[in-house]
Amino acid sequence: MTPRTAAAWSVAPEDVASAGAAALWREYYTEVSDRWYLLHEGRRTDPEELEREIAADTAEGLRPPGGVLLVARYGGVPAGTAGVRLAGDGVAELKRVFLLPAHRGKGGAALLVAAAEEAARALGARRMVLDTRGDLVEARALYARLGYRETEPHNDEAYAEHWFAKEL
Description:
Blueprint: E1 4-6, E2 9-13, H1 19-41, H2 47-56, E3 67-74, E4 77-88, E5 91-99, H3 108-122, E6 127-132, H4 137-145, E7 149-151, E8 162-167
Parallel strand pairs: 5-6
Antiparallel strand pairs: 1-2, 2-3, 3-4, 4-5, 6-8, 7-8
Protein name: GNAT family N-acetyltransferase
Enzyme class: transferase
Organism: Streptomyces chilikensis
C-alpha cells in the first residue's frame, strides 16, 4: 500500500507497537472507555483498569499478513489511526478509527477510512464491516456519510450496538 496524503495529512502503515501507534491507542482507549463510564456510571475509567485493558489488547490482528494499522499524521505528528483485519470470506473489519480531538474536522477521518478501504482491497477483501456503540454518534455519522449502511450484527462484541458494512 502506498502512503496517502492530503494537504497537511499523510496516512501510512505502521506497526502497532510503534511509539506513535501505542500513544494513539492509549488516547483512543481512554476516550471511548471514559465516554462509556461517564454515560453509564458517572465516572471516568479506573486507572488500573485502563492499564490492564490497554496491555491486554495486543492488536495482533492488525499486523501483516492478515491486517494493517494505518497512522495518520498531521504536519508530521501522529494524529489518528484506522485498523483493518481480515475476517474471512472476502470480508475485512475496520477497527480503531480515531483522531485526536485537536485534529477533528480537518478531513483526516475520511482520509483514514479511504486508506483503510484501499488496504482492505489490497488484502483481498470485497466488503468492509465494523461495529460501534450507540454513544459514539460522531462515528456513526461518519460511517453513514462515507457510504456504510447499518446491518444486522456480524459479531457478538460486548459493547457493540450498531453494525455497518460497505461493499468495496
